[in-house]
Amino acid sequence: MKKAEGYQSITVPEARLDEFFQVVQWAFVGEWLIEDRQDYIDALPVERARGLEVTDERRGAVGEIAAVHASFGTEMITPGGRRVSAAGLSWLGVHPSHRRRGLMTEMMHDHFRRCLERGEAVSTLYAMEAEIYARFGYGMGAQTVKASIPRGPRMWKVEGADELTVRLERADFDAHDQLVADLQAKLTRPGTILNPVGSGRNARFTDPLGNRKGMEKWRIAIVEDRGEPVAYAFFRRKADSDIGIHDGICQVREHGALTPAASQRLWETLTDFDLVETTYTENLATDDPLLHQLKDARGARSKVIDNLWVRLLDVPTALQSREYFHDCDVTVGLTDKHVPDNAGTWRIVVRDGEATVTRAEGAVADLTMDVRHLSTVYLGGTSVESLAAAGQVLEHTPGQARELAVAMMSPVAPLANWDF
Ligand SMILES: CC(=O)SCCNC(=O)CCNC(=O)[C@H](O)C(C)(C)COP(=O)(O)OP(=O)(O)OC[C@H]1O[C@@H](n2cnc3c(N)ncnc32)[C@H](O)[C@@H]1OP(=O)(O)O
């Protein structure tokens, strides 16, 4: 049998969500608590839940769901603070008894086709394993610093930080969703994923008991400037002690700040709870203001890992939906195995920050690359020239990798602060 033969793509109806979740638990290795069911439903973009159902008994029980995925419909901030219509792919899993039969490949094609029909020019995701997605044209578009910060770090003072006030509350969808969405919409960092439309909107507020590992429920810190919210962070703490000495921890998940003072006030709060010795943070951009405010940045023990993976689906629309920081005129020969409409030669002309991207069939390409390389550099966190130096992008006209690199590099490092 050919790969993925004996299965059909379906939209998973609400009545079959438990089957959807069964596949997820098998794929992601875990047994959920029955009392967490509603949290998982709340976190799922239900109307975009898709599955592959067995149609041939040689593959398994006919009618059984063998693989699933879903995606959030959203917008992503691009360099220069612009926006592009994007999908956030998530919940992708294949039941272990159906793996390596091409089901993921089938689902990726289903996802790409439906995104393009909806006008989503870019697909994004967080990868469970880093090796999987490049073959489908995704590139590591943003990286994140994971840091553990000892209590009360010394900081370079930022004027105005002391005048700001902080509210600490239990995170609650009704009380805080609009506030977070409004702040999120004011962030200009490329890679920022805005609140999704439709169901799944409250994903960031769900708090399954099975994931809590002895920690308190998610809290939210809101920094205000005369009553106006200027920063927020989701956090939770856990008291602990070692040989009778308090050794609690604080975990910070999503956060965002609109000003340097707001950032400082936020982190002073998050790193100075009584009985908490270490604050862990998951989503710091590689140039997050905190890293420049800490007097001893090395003291915040850190590692850098991949954050958002990005896949251009509609190359001209995506490239024209961001700002550029230098003029250029570069011809790119592009390969794209999974969305063949993107393949061919493109001319990228930038004038005054705006790109015009047109087909240039027959022209000699200055650079050749795969769509995963263009996707890697899209948010401006990696330079085309470094990919050329690594032998991944081929330069046929000397200097053109630098020309495109300077145009595309972002002055601000990209990051998605919401882990969907
Ligand atoms: C966005 C997210 O949701 S991230 C979460 C992804 N899900 C998981 O990690 C859950 C556990 N894993 C799974 O459910 C499955 O094993 C999946 C989804 C990773 C792969 O599904 P499969 O149906 O087995 O993949 P499929 O048969 O289509 O393989 C496609 C290709 O990817 C490769 N591949 C699949 N899994 C992996 C892996 N873990 N590491 C490296 N390569 C992989 C295959 O070898 C194949 O390569 P080829 O095209 O060169 O032949």
Automatic annotation (TrEMBL):
Among InterPro entries, the record links this protein to: Acetyltransf_17, Acetyltransferase_Eis, Acyl_CoA_acyltransferase, Eis_dom, GNAT_dom, NAcTrfase_Eis, SCP2_sterol-bd_dom_sf
Could you tell me which residue ranges the N-acetyltransferase domain spans? 7-169
Give the residues annotated as active site.
Answer: Y133, F420
- GO molecular function terms noted in the UniProt entry: acyltransferase activity
Known partners and oligomeric status: Homohexamer; trimer of dimers.
Q: Could you say which protein family the record assigns here?
A: Belongs to the acetyltransferase Eis family.
How is this protein named in the record?
GNAT family N-acetyltransferase
UniProt organism field = Demequina muriae
